[in-house]
Each structure stands twice: as C-alpha cells, then as structure tokens.
Description:
Blueprint: E1 12-15, E2 21-25, H1 30-42, E3 47-52, H2 58-61, H3 64-70, E4 75-77, E5 94-97, E6 101-107, E7 116-122, E8 125-131, E9 134-135, E10 138-139, H4 147-158, E11 166-169, H5 174-184, H6 188-199, H7 209-215, H8 224-230, H9 235-248
Parallel strand pairs: 2-3, 3-4, 8-11
Antiparallel strand pairs: 1-2, 5-6, 6-7, 7-8, 9-10
Helix pairs in contact: 4-9, 5-6
Amino acid sequence: MLGSGTGNNYAYLVIDETTKDAVIIDPANPPEVAPVLKSQIDSGKIKLKNIINTHHHPDHAGGNKKILEDFKGLSVIGGKDCQAVSHTPKDKDTFKIGESITVQALYTPCHTQDSICYYCEDGQDRAVFTGDTLFIGGCGRFFEGTPAEMHTALNKTLAALPEDTKVYPGHEYTKANVKFAVSVLPTEPVKKLLSFAEQNSETQGKFTIGDEKLHNVFMRVQDPDIQKATGKTDPVDVMGKLREMKNSFK
C-alpha cells in the first residue's frame, strides 16, 4: 500500500524484488497515481515497465494516455478496447514481471467483453487481480455479458486457481456486497466477512479464492439455501437471479 486516494478504485503496483521491474495495474487517476510512481522511480525503488488493464472502462483504463505522457517507454497490456493498448495477451498467455513473477492472463468476459484477470505467482505467493469481475463477497454487473459468462468466469476460471490465491479486486465494495450476501446466506463465513468489513475500510488482499468460495454468494450457486432464496436450481439461472436481486437491493 503506497497511498490512498479519494475514490473506491484500486490501482496496484506490482514489483519484482530482485530486478525492481514493476507494473502498474489500472492507474485510472493519474493525479493521484503519478506522484507515487515518480517518487518510487526517483528513489530507485522501481523500474516501471508496463501499464496493465483489467478492462476498458474509464475508471480503470482512462488514465493510460496521461501516464504514458508522464513516464516514457511504457507499453500497455490489456484487452483490445483499452485506451492506448499496445499488447492484448491471449487467454492463458503468460509473461514475466522481472525474474520472479509469472503472470497468466485469464479471459473473464461478462462485465465487459475485454475483461482479463491476471494471476500472479512468485515462489509460494499467489495473487489474482480481478478488476470488476470478482469483488470481495461479490461480482461486477453484467454490462456486456450474460449470467452464463459470469458463472464461467467465477465458478470455472477463477475457482480453478489455488485456494490460497489472494484476491485483489478493482474496487472496495465489500460492505455493500456482504450486506446483500447476509440477506441471502446468513452463514458463519458470511457473518465473519460482515464483521471484518465493518471494522476495516480496505479488504483487498485480505481474502483468498478459498475464502470467496465460502462467503461469496455468486461463487455458491450450487448452495441449496441460495437456490431456495432465488427460486432457481440451474447454476446459470441462480447467477442471473442473484445479480437481479443485488441490483435492486437497498
């Protein structure tokens, strides 16, 4: 954590400790992000190589051009519709940050059709940067996709990652997500997340894929209690109904 801004967006700086090579993920607000990057570069703590985008929405990719102006020689890795994108990885393509960090691009179309999650491994440490696909205790709206696509993204693609993979989402939406979740599934894991969210303003990196499978209702579409709450049994139908219910939840 190198600084906090005014909104609920997260931008992430990922650094290879050996080489100091670094990437900045979703630097959508250059006035807040650029001073932090400049300080890190000027002090010799990082060698900034790339911008990485999780999807094309302006609150994620809208700062690319300004960052490229301020920091020469960078390339933009992201979906095909991202601002000033220079390289779009194929699904499951891998690339390196420095010597130690391996990154795999995972296509997760739904929130947008160019949504990509980035799974990173560094030795025994694992993390996934999920943009607006997976939030702590929730998921993104289906702006450009279908319930079937979000079911695949969450419950096939991301659910297949190692259980101890830490989740770094694109926004801090946990309080609102878990208030809805506890109305649908008042289990101990959900209540535990509610308690954590009430006591902590930031939840990024605090929970894993394994945790999400327990407290995220969108990753529990096979749960009999959630099927009962939605009146559906097919997982895709459950996903669609849950999203409808969340959209209108007050």
